[in-house]
């Protein structure tokens, strides 16, 4: 085995099969930035001020739903029932607690009827019904001390939220002999939206000071440390303005704000770290500030540009899914990535030109260095680590692969479900109401399936169809039909839980029944079935899009056929720990007490797709940083092993610092009281750390040592293609 400590060969000593010359494309705005830095900063400042104005109030215009497929059968049936039978689709529930008395007590009944009557007269409220009106056993608690008033708030999510804000204070609290709490899907989503906005503010207050401290530790200079934060703030404010504009044309999820903050800070810090680090290296060689910025943009700037493209591609894959929850993250993610890259490539270089050598000012580590003595050469520890890994490449490659696969094994037991009130903290009012309904009411009100019948039919035809449904093995009870014109609906109560496997099979059985009229099935289980189908149908297209475009981008960066394949496979492998942890913690409920959430026993169907796209993009971000530096050194020397070691040496500390800082931001997001947001933040934090500390530090150098010089092979047509269109760091190697 060749020792990695062998001195790099010179360009003249490189063998004939050396890699081809790399592309010479440059970033065309470099002369503008270096020649007119004050003008660049002024324009950026004005655009940021406009973004603040344009993005104000964006959170109030965002929705908290978006998990359903708008083209699904269940969505059609839900909307049809809302129009024809609003009482069949209640989204507001008033839990009436009579204390020690029975809900049938005359005083309790009179007060409840008065509440229901007043609610029916509220603007924007329709379909009001109650236990005291229908005497339905499903609306009365088993202990006889609680019962329900159900209603539907009309309009879109924004209108429903405003109506709820107006009516809730009038009904919440004590009314004579009863006490009222509000629940239902509209209350759950409105409370979720409010909590997310509060938690996002808290996350920013947590992340910003910690991030600043870490940046000072990385850079030493307080001036240099403030630059990445400034870039991140510009990216976040700009994305808020973009989202505010999008709400005029399409629905956008409130959860996207969390991604905006996390990626805005995380990626801006990544890109700024890379550029400022390279700029300081150029200054240390004696270059003047303008020359140093130009050299930085020709090298690190290209890498940042390619990195932003790879992250944006991963996020853009969510556009193929119909759920606006996922599409919202694509909108927010693409916007914040491109804005972070633009700020890092335009705004940051202008600031560096103006600062010059003052970028190293306010060195807060100077005192520590005096006490400890001079620091070792840059990256020495990472060089030693790379050398050790490459000397024991088979052991490290096998060991890290087994570790990552083992950590991902719990995902084999994943169960997909829907987002419900259990996303909220246990003390949230709507969660308390829904928990009372689940545990204290017969038949899980609101958890049944609704069957919409469309077309002319006779009573005997309805009766025969009802008998068919009642004969299905998973059915506990069939109510209805309620007829209006040429439409009718039945309510089918499953024998078990509302969304368990039996309820999902029941959806298929109901849809397979023959009827002399058109039928459509909706309800919680039906929505879940349709959502899973929509995800499964489009997932191969999304994965294929990510893989193909990533392969192309990495090939353009490296000119190798093997490296892009390695990058895609190793990136996917780096996510196994995240998916295993998500199931072990959030589905199975381990650490639920310590992390403060209620496990529903399943994972919301769209979350793994979202987490994969985000985490894969971030992993590629670090992969591009490492590969570009390896490629630069290989182009210069032609020594494969030395290039890998040099790449790890020059980027190991940088990638680790960037990963730790991004993990801090994601953990701050993960302190949210909403479970999906907590899962997103903590899961991606784990994925980022595993990628930086295991995959980039151990697995990549081990695999590249095993593949040797074959790593850089490409057939002649592709070599010529890369010579013409390829882009990479550094000057091309002379042959």
Distance separating the two termini: 26 Å
Largest sheet, in brief, is: 5 strands, antiparallel
% residues in beta strands: 5-15%
Number of DSSP helical runs: 25
Please summarize what this structure is.
By secondary structure, this protein is of the alpha+beta class. The chain has helices at residues 30-35, 37-55, 73-84, 106-120, 131-134, 157-171, 185-219, 222-246, 256-284, 289-316, 324-355, 366-372, 380-391, 393-408, 429-440, 459-470, 501-512, 524-558, 562-574, 576-587, 592-595, 607-637, 640-669, 675-707, 716-725; strands at 92-97, 125-130, 146-153, 173-175, 178-183, 416-417, 449-454, 475-484, 487-494, 518-523, 603-604.
Description:
The protein is an alpha+beta fold. The chain has 25 helices and eleven strands. A five-stranded antiparallel β-sheet has the order 2-3-1-5-4, sandwiched between helices. The longest helix has 35 residues. It is elongated, with a radius of gyration of 30 Å. It starts with 29 loop residues before the first helix and ends in a 10-residue tail after the last helix. The N terminus and C terminus are likely disordered.
Descriptive labels:
735 residues; disordered C terminus; five-stranded antiparallel beta sheet; alpha+beta; 9% strand
SSE blueprint and pairings:
Elements: H1 30-35, H2 37-55, H3 73-84, E1 92-97, H4 106-120, E2 125-130, H5 131-134, E3 146-153, H6 157-171, E4 173-175, E5 178-183, H7 185-219, H8 222-246, H9 256-284, H10 289-316, H11 324-355, H12 366-372, H13 380-391, H14 393-408, E6 416-417, H15 429-440, E7 449-454, H16 459-470, E8 475-484, E9 487-494, H17 501-512, E10 518-523, H18 524-558, H19 562-574, H20 576-587, H21 592-595, E11 603-604, H22 607-637, H23 640-669, H24 675-707, H25 716-725
Parallel strand pairs: 6-11
Antiparallel strand pairs: 1-3, 1-5, 2-3, 4-5, 7-9, 7-10, 8-9
Helix pairs in contact: 2-8, 2-11, 7-8, 7-9, 7-23, 8-9, 8-11, 9-10, 9-11, 9-23, 10-11, 10-18, 10-22, 13-14, 13-23, 13-24, 14-20, 14-24, 18-19, 18-22, 19-22, 19-24, 20-24, 22-23, 22-24, 23-24
């Amino acid at each position: 085995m060749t020792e990695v400590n062998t001195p790099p060969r010179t360009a003249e000593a490189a063998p004939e099969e050396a890699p081809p010359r790399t592309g010479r494309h440059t970033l065309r705005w470099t002369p503008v930035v270096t020649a007119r830095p004050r003008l660049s900063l002024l324009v950026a400042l004005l655009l940021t001020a406009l973004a603040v104005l344009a993005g104000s109030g964006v959170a109030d215009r965002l929705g908290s739903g978006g998990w359903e497929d708008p083209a699904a059968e269940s969505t059609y049936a839900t909307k049809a029932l809302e129009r024809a039978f609003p009482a069949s689709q209640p989204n507001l529930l008033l839990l009436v607690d009579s204390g020690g008395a029975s809900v049938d007590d005359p005083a309790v009944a009179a007060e409840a009827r008065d509440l229901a009557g007043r609610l029916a007269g509220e603007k924007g409220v329709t379909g009001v019904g109650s236990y005291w009106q229908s005497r339905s056993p499903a609306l009365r608690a088993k202990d006889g001390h609680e019962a329900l008033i159900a209603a539907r708030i009309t309009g879109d999510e924004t209108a429903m939220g405003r109506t709820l804000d107006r009516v809730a204070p009038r009904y919440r609290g004590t009314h004579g002999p009863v006490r009222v709490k509000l629940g239902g899907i509209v209350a759950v989503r409105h409370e979720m939206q409010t909590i997310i906005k509060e938690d996002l503010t808290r996350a920013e207050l947590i992340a910003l000071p910690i991030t600043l401290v870490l940046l000072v530790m990385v850079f030493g200079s307080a001036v240099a440390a403030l630059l990445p934060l400034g870039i991140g703030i510009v990216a976040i404010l700009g994305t808020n303005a973009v989202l505010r504009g999008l709400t005029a044309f399409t629905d956008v999820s409130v959860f996207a704000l969390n991604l905006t903050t996390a990626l805005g800070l995380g990626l801006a810090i990544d890109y700024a770290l890379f550029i400022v680090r390279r700029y300081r290296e150029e200054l240390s060689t004696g270059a003047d500030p303008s020359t140093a910025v130009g050299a930085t943009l020709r090298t690190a700037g290209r890498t940042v540009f390619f990195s932003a493209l790879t992250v944006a591609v991963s996020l853009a894959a969510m556009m193929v899914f119909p759920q606006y929850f996922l599409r919202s993250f694509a909108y927010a993610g693409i916007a914040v990535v491109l804005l972070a890259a633009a700020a890092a490539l335009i705004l940051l270089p202008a600031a560096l030109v103006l600062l010059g050598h003052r970028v190293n000012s306010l060195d807060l580590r100077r005192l520590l260095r005096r006490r400890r003595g001079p620091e070792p050469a840059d990256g020495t520890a990472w060089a030693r680590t790379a050398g050790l890994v490459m000397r024991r490449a088979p052991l490290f490659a096998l060991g890290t692969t087994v570790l990552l696969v083992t950590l991902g094994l719990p995902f084999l037991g994943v169960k997909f479900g829907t987002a419900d009130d259990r996303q909220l903290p246990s003390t949230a009012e709507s969660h308390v109401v829904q928990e009372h309904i689940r545990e204290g009411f017969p038949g899980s009100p609101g958890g049944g399936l609704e069957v919409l019948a469309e077309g002319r039919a006779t009573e005997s035809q309805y009766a025969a169809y009802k008998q068919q449904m009642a004969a299905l093995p998973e059915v506990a009870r069939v109510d209805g039909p309620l007829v209006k014109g040429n439409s009718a609906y039945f309510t089918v109560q499953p024998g078990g839980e509302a969304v368990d496997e039996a309820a999902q099979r029941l959806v298929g059985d109901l849809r397979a029944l023959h009827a002399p009229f058109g039928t459509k099935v909706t309800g919680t289980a039906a929505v879940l079935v349709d959502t899973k189908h929509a995800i499964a149908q489009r997932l191969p297209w999304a994965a294929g899009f990510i893989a193909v475009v990533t392969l192309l981008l990495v090939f353009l960066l490296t000119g190798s056929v093997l490296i892009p394949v390695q990058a895609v496979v190793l990136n996917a492998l780096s996510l196994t720990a995240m998916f295993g942890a998500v199931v072990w913690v959030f589905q199975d409920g381990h650490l639920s007490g310590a992390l403060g959430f209620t496990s529903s026993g399943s994972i919301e169907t769209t979350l793994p797709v979202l987490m994969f796209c985000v985490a894969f993009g971030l992993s590629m971000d670090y992969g591009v940083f490492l590969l570009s530096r390896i490629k630069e050194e290989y182009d210069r020397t032609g020594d494969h092993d030395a290039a890998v070691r040099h790449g790890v040496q020059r980027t190991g500390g940088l990638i680790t610092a960037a990963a730790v800082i991004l993990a801090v931001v994601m953990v701050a997001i993960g302190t949210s009281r909403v479970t999906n947001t907590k899962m997103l933040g903590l899961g991606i934090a784990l994925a980022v750390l595993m990628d930086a500390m295991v995959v980039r530090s151990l697995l990549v150098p081990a695999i590249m040592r095993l593949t040797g010089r074959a790593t850089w092979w490409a057939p002649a047509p592709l070599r010529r293609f890369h010579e013409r269109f390829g882009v990479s760091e550094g000057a091309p190697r002379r042959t």
